[in-house]
Amino acid sequence: MAPVMDGDLARQDAATMAAAMQGGEVTSVEVTQACLDRIDAVDGQVHAFLHVDRDAALETARGIDELRSTGAALGPLAGVPLALKDVLTMNGVPTTCGSRILEGWRPPYDSTVVERLRDAGVVILGKTNMDEFAMGSSTEHSAYGPTRNPWDLERIPGGSGGGSAAALAAFEAPLAIGTDTGGSIRQPAAVTGTVGVKPTYGGVSRYGLVALASSLDQAGPCARTVMDAALLHAVIAGHDPRDSTSIDAPVPDVVAAAKNADVRGMRIGLVRELGGEGYQEGVRQRFDEAVAILGDLGADVVEVSCPNFEYALAAYYLILPSEASSNLARFDGMRYGMRVGDDGQASVEEVMSQTREAGFGSEVKRRIMLGTYALSSGYYDAYYGQAQKVRTLITRDFAAAFDQADVLISPTAPTTAFRIGEKVDDPLAMYLNDIATIPVNLAGNCAMSIPIGLAPEDGLPVGLQIMAPALADDRLYRVGAALEQALVDKWGHELIEEVPAL
Amino acid sequence: MAQISREEVQHLAHLARLELTEEETAHYADQLSAIVEAVARVSDVAAQDIPPTSHPIPITNVYREDVAKPGLDRAELAAAAPSWEDDRFKVPRILGED
Q: Between chains, do A335 and B89 touch, taking CB under 8 Å as contact?
């Protein structure tokens, strides 16, 4: 391995940083400081972070360096910096979920994801921006202002995890954690030219993940390479007794799969319903080229049909608001967070209503009311009940498709990054961004987005989505790593190297 | 087309404990009507006898050992509370005046 130069430290991927630390070329303090310096230099423009936990990060890094100097056995990501989406609790560190209602709240406990990151010696740099309570596809619905896409600062970085994806693309951190309820890891990955994985539902503990829609939410790894995502996946995944939906089964060996990177003889299914009309020309072009590459690599590409996917978006926008309206009832201004209007005269109900009116933004209110409507008597059977049936049909479509193919692929998002402000008050247009990612959340299986090039018409990144059956997360990494390697060979560099200098 | 009136929006807002402004009420009436119209198509396919899915990976009867564990730190909870008195959360009055 070539020595890692200090000036380029923040641009290295996590595996390279880790190897350099293990080889004694750099320390975790140096790597962490390089990321903090980069945040200082560019985050004024990008606004990926809501909170930078500078001193604690450096202290963690010093601790890892000391441990390493004693010859202690450390995990593969020990000392590597990471950006944490602000929807996961971290003891004593502000956790806002992008909302005013939690401004200044410091949770008294760690989420399981954070606990596992700490146990692995990962250095948490801070908390990243997001659409309020993860409701959105652009990070414009953050109460603290939008995050900007490092590829073009006038454009959105995707959402809801736009902060995590932008932190990677701006070289502020080599690793990030996202959460994905309908595409909030994969769509930001696609529009920022990075890698994002939604693990199988139940694969990563939801303990300490502030709930949006409990039957859909899943935390997962974000990185600039498939291997880095695999290393992070291995750290955060696995059974947790504190989450009763956590799967009590071994985590698939995703790191071995990323090393294997061989698609010869694999059956790869093109989903007929996810593509074509409504997908941007350059997205389709890059996708078709990637399909041809997979064929050249020895995969058997077949077409599959999932006829009920066209109803996924409608079902999702009934199920998600229904669960969200219930989950967000906990923000009542009584035990934590904002309280408004408590003048000694107003009743608890008036204080709650004023607090929630002042503390929630427009998209959150919209979805709470939509969910309240869908669950109200007289409408329940027609909306929520029917949506749950659609969910069964989509799961059956996946099962049939996975009889014919080992993995399925599609474009991750129908378009490249759009301009900030373009869709912010047009909810139906905004919801369409997740048309290809939502089916996986409804069925609970796993998916990855990897960068496959820039759309010729606008020079912005395009993502390809790989979908695998529940508990077969390793297949994502096998296919993702193979395609990534072939593309890097073709381009002579990683796509992220083409991101304009900030 | 499913039309959600301003009165219905006000009712939903009350159920959800949101004190909307007049302007918000009008805006949401239009937007919610459009969204409900778009999502109503779930009825097109799912009218048949199909079992509902409430959870993607069904797991039932999850048990753990009944062992006492320390709870959250009281002083930290107090520090994060909007109002705290006598070791308890202090809340506004819960009964109306009439």
A: yes
Cα dihedral B78, B84, B88, B89, rounded to 10, equals -90
Domain count, chain A: 1
Residue A49 has what DSSP assignment? E
SS3 A301: strand
Mutate to test the interface with A, among B15, B21, B35, B48 (most CBs of A within 10 A): B35
- Token look-up 């009439």 returns B98
Q: How far is A469 from chain B (nearest CA, A)?
A: 12
Q: State how far the Cα of A399 lies from the Cα of A393, in Å rounded to an integer.
A: 10
Which 3 state secondary structure label does DSSP give A363?
helix
Does A350 map to a domain?
no
Dihedral of CA atoms A156, A455, A438, A399 in degrees, nearest 10, equals -160
Task: Report the pLDDT value the prediction gives residue A6, as an integer from 0 to 100.
Answer: 46
User: What is the helix (H) or strand (E) element at residue A314, kind and residue range?
Assistant: helix A312-327
In a domain, A303, yes or no: no
Segments forming the whole domain that contains residue A148: 6-264+410-498
Residue of A215, A334, A393 with shortest CB distance to B46: A393
Q: List pLDDT tens digits, range B9-64.
A: 999 999 999 999 999 999 999 999 999 999 999 988 866 789 999 988 888 888 88
- Exposure on the CB side of residue A492, measured as CA atoms within 13 A: 0
Nearest to B19 among A247, A311, A357 (CB): A357
Assigned CATH topology for domain B1-47: Histone, subunit A (1.10.20)
Instruction: State the average pLDDT for chain A.
Output: 96
**Does A131 reside within a domain?**
yes
Cβ-defined contact of A336 to B81 (cutoff 8 Å)? yes
Residue A481 lies in a domain: yes
Q: Does residue B47 come out as left (phi exceeding 0), alpha (psi in the -120 to 50 range) or beta?
A: alpha
**DSSP state, residue A419:** B
> What is the CATH number for A188?
3.90.1300.10
Phi then psi for A223, rounded to 5 degrees? -160, 180
Summarize the confidence of residues A241-265 as an average pLDDT.
97
